[in-house]
Amino acid sequence: xxxxxxxxxxxxxxxxxxxxxxxxxxxxxxxxxxxxxxxxxxxxxxxxxxxxxxxxxxxxxxxxxxxxxxxxxxxxxxxxxxxxxxxxxxxxxxxxxxxxxxxxxxxxxxxxxxxxxxxxxxxxxxxxxxxxxxxxxxxxxxxxxxxxxxxxxxxxxxxxxxxxxxxxxxxxxxxxxxxxxxxxxxxxxxxxxxxxxxxxxxxxxxxxxxxxxxxxxxxxxxxxxxxxxxxxxxxxxxxxxxxxxxxxxxxxxxxxxxxxxxxxxxxxxxxxxxxxxxxxxxxxxxxxxxxxxxxxxxxxxxxxxxxxxxxxxxxxxxxxxxxxxxxxxxxxxxxxxxxxxxxxxxxxxxxxxxxxxxxxxxxxxxxxxxxxxxxxxxxxxxxxxxxxxxxxxxxxxxxxxxxxxxxxxxxxxxxxxxxxxxxxxxxxxxxxxxxxxxxxxxxxxxxxxxxxxxxxxxxxxxxxxxxxxxxxxxxxxxxxxxxxxxxxxxxxxxxxxxxxxxxxxxxxxxxxxxxxxxxxxxxxxxxxxxxxxxxxxxxxxxxxxxxxxxxxxxxxxxxxxxxxxxxxxxxxxxxxxxxxxxxxxxxxxxxxxxxxxxxxxxxxxxxxxxxxxxxxxxxxxxxxx
Length: 625
Hints:
- Its EC number is 3.6.4.13.
- This is ATP-dependent RNA helicase DeaD.
- Residues 38-209 form the Helicase ATP-binding domain.
- It is an enzyme of class 3 (hydrolase).
- The protein is of the alpha/beta class and 625 residues long.
- The chain is built from 20 helices and 20 strands.
- The protein has helices at residues 16-25, 32-42, 57-67, 85-98, 116-125, 134-143, 159-164, 168-176, 193-202, 233-243, 256-268, 282-293, 327-334, 355-364, 377-398, 405-415, 419-430, 498-508, 536-544, 557-560; strands at 47-51, 78-81, 107-110, 129-132, 153-156, 183-187, 207-211, 221-227, 248-252, 273-276, 299-302, 315-320, 344-350, 370-371, 483-488, 519-521, 526-531, 546-547, 550-551, 555-556.
- A hairpin with a 4-residue loop joins strand 16 (519-521) and strand 17 (526-531).
- It is globular.
């Protein structure tokens, strides 16, 4: 399909309330995928939307499905399934923005790692749109807290990514347990065979919409990425702002609330930073842009929508604090610098589990983004010294030091002090509370490895008896990544499979799946090899994470085996707290051994059981776990 659109949003028969919101946001004309998909969804036609960059996909399904919502019926009418919680939050916020003039509209994001009670209260109160990850949607369906009696449209967003993360079986289960009379819109950048099979099985004579994008980045922009987990982004950002010889910087984030929060944190650290977002009046926005042009503000923090049309010549750096989910957004973001032949620098923060988005951006823009190491103490101190010298020189050139000349001359004559000694003493007073030079920096752990190997985490467990051992097996393709063996307190008895473990760790700890090593399943525990030296914050997250209704309670294998005198075979803990050893046989097939008829998941049914209301049928063959 052509990249140019000739219609307006008004011509797409959208309600006035939505058109009003689009005008406030600043949308002028629909993108090609929006022009093609909006009429089809409005007509309840199943569709497959395929776009290499994903440009405008959210609005392509959100606007027309929102137009069909009846706010007088406080039941879920639209369901959007997303592969990650970040995308679920982003899509839910987009629905909220588009529906800001629809009185009484409610949207609810649901995802793992979030407590159940708030979600249950919101569902009981009534919502119109549910946006969530497969696992949490399934949990609510099994609980009976999420029913689809009034479902009109079901959207699969980034279907190929859900396949890559091992969620495709869960997606199929959800589709099988929704009413037959519902519309399905499937969006995917690529169409691998498993996705085609899902489309053939569940979609009814779908229309296929395919968009090609030609957006390119400017050759004058130096593109770099930094590998850093979310817990350490602020520290990494601070170091970059300290070390880069920048003029003005724009930092991109996904949500307006996070923009405000980051602006406060940077201001507290001594930076001149302000947030721009959609809640601002146009006059406020214009004033802030003028302050940026007049050198009164050095850092602007914005969302994609808020930065629309922002063109300030002195912007030398663009920092993607939150990585965009499509390469088109990336191109538009970094285009704020390097304009009209000027040089610019674009830095992209990439969490371990976001490496697939980095590869997607590189592939779609036919470019390679170089890895950037975070600046050292020496680099930051050199830049601080340079800035201090520049400030002193500017004071001298401006003549603003003349008022103090007679005082310095008096000190020289009365105390016989040299000018160097006096200037050094004044500098020490100036930096008494905040030293000019740093002695050290907090450590920022890095799970990433530039060689890009793959993990063997999806290998079936071995055969025969396999007591827990403390030695981790090498990570295939990544010999330089040092691993440690951990024990997690969930196993075959709980119905767990390797993909459940990989999904939980990848989502909760923000670790790319290829850095999750060998996994072995036992009766009530499992072992998993993970990068050594994981920070305490990550360990605390994993200890609380849940798989199949069980807390992982992760611990080092060496700690788990303390007190076992017979080799430390896995077993249940008795009252004394030590492990009572018993034979632990790993499963012979991927996903564990055979389960008994009753699945031990705190009373919950297995993924392939019917929900409480009995609706739906399980068309898939039950696999041995």
